Amino acid sequence: MGRRERKKAQTRQALSDTALRLFLEHGYDSVTIAQIAEEADIAVATVFAYFPDGKESLIFDDGVERRDRLVAAVRDRPEGQPVLRALREFLATRGPFRVDPSPQHRRRTELVMDTPALRGYQGRLWTRSQDALAEAIADESGRDPADITVRALARYVLEIPDLAAGEPDPRHALNAVFDLLESGWPAP
User: Fold this and answer.
1) CA-to-CA distance for 1 and 6, rounded, in angstroms?
2) Which residue range(s) make up the domain with 53?
3) Which pLDDT does position 89 carry in this prediction?
């Protein structure tokens, strides 16, 4: 990474860190983009240049890393490991599903879960990965990425974080949904 790219990454991280700190201190709805820009000593226009999706995007990456890691969980899984097992293990390391998160991570997760705008934005980041995940699942299963069952599986998996995260025991809920996907609905 060249000097210019490093500087951009530092600016983006500084904005993100400032926004998270202000959101945690004052609440998401009480903080404006102008306040974040002032605190970071950056012009408001610069904030939007780095985060064109607006205020919700300030504490998230752009979704590319999320998508890439999700696809890597499928493509780079150990030989013989089922795709759904790899996806379960990947999601178990994220957000409210993590075991023993740091206090900072816990506070950030609580902020996201308790703020409808952030939770909705995070959900959109997950679903942006649907085509890439469907393609990876198709490649690994020898199916066509356009196959409705492949696309449905990708969508179902990407809905799990939002669905399970709001449960009293998110990790248990994550496992319950994956158990259902892996075994199918029991006949009555």
Assistant:
1) 6
2) 3-59
3) 96
Cβ atoms of 56 and 118 within 8 Å: the answer is yes
CA distance 164 to 32: 30
Alpha-carbon distance 75 to 79, whole Å? 10
Taking the whole predicted model, whether its pTM rises above 0.90 is answered as: no
**CB atoms near residue 142 (< 10 Å):** 6
Distances (CA, A) of 41 to 6, 49, 61, 159: 18, 15, 21, 37
CB of 40 within 8 A of CB of 15?
yes
Model confidence pLDDT, tens digit, residues 10-53:
999 999 999 999 999 999 999 999 999 999 999 999 999 999 98
Are 76 and 141 contained in the same domain?
Answer: yes
